[in-house]
Amino acid sequence: MSGSSSFARASHGTPPEPLTLTVHGLPGNVPGVRSRWSGRFTLLLVLLACAAPVVASYFTYYVLRPQGRSNYAELIQPSRGLPANLPLQTLDGRSVGAASLKRQWLLTVVAGGVCDVACERMLFEQRQLREMLGRERDRVDNLWLVTDDAPVRPEVLQALTPGTWVLRVPPQALAQWLQPAPGHALSEHMYVVDPMGEWMMRTPPQPEPKRFHKDLERLLRASAFWDRPGREVGP
Asked: Where exactly are the transmembrane stretches of this chain (predicted)?
């Protein structure tokens, strides 16, 4: 019998045959699973590469700064993204996609179409601030968001920087994005929006242009290695 033969060989000192083990591949080694994980890792790297320059510039501006230096304008934390469905229209009633506002820094003023003395002063300071940036001004667009249906006087439009965006937006919709400081109106501030559409800075009410100009200069300098002019004129 085969069983007794095996026993006999073992009893005469014949060494037993070594055992062999077969190791099967783990699920992670399956080509399809490995490919999916590789794709996800690559996507994560791309997202990090896109976000890193912006994060680094803000970190440089607001964290790695000399002791004793204070910012004049207020940093919005966290920043607030431009709503994709923000209903924007030109003064002649043409719809403008919110995404078209991206690719440039936006120095933003909010006021009604009548534009009283305070509004005129804010628009004048907006124009002066951009000019004060010198060669960096091409990275900044001026934006005036008109929050009512009142007609805008031609003389006010003529005084604006050429290429200024003048767009109407319902105040209720705008409130989902920009907000004033507690106890103040939207029209009392200027707002800075970065090239990705993130509202990230707000001036104090009735801002002092010279002090705010220093903030803008430092912000543009900190972002110079990733941001470039994206357009030349408004809609």
From this structure: 41-64
Q: pLDDT digits over 21-57, tens only?
A: 454 444 545 555 566 666 666 766 665 565 555 555 5
**Burial class of 190 by CB neighbour count within 10 A (0 to 12, 13 to 18, 19+):** buried
Residue pair 117/82 in contact by the 8 Å Cβ criterion: no
Tokens of 153: 């006087």
- In one-letter notation, the amino acid at residue 190 is M
Per-domain residue ranges of the chain: 71-222
> What class is the 71-222 domain?
alpha beta
CA distance 214 to 11: 96
pTM, 2 dp: 0.71
- How far, in Å, CA of 215 to CA of 213, rounded? 5
Distance between alpha carbon 141 and the CA centroid of its chain, in Å?
Answer: 15
Please give the structure tokens belonging to residue 129. Answer: 């601030």
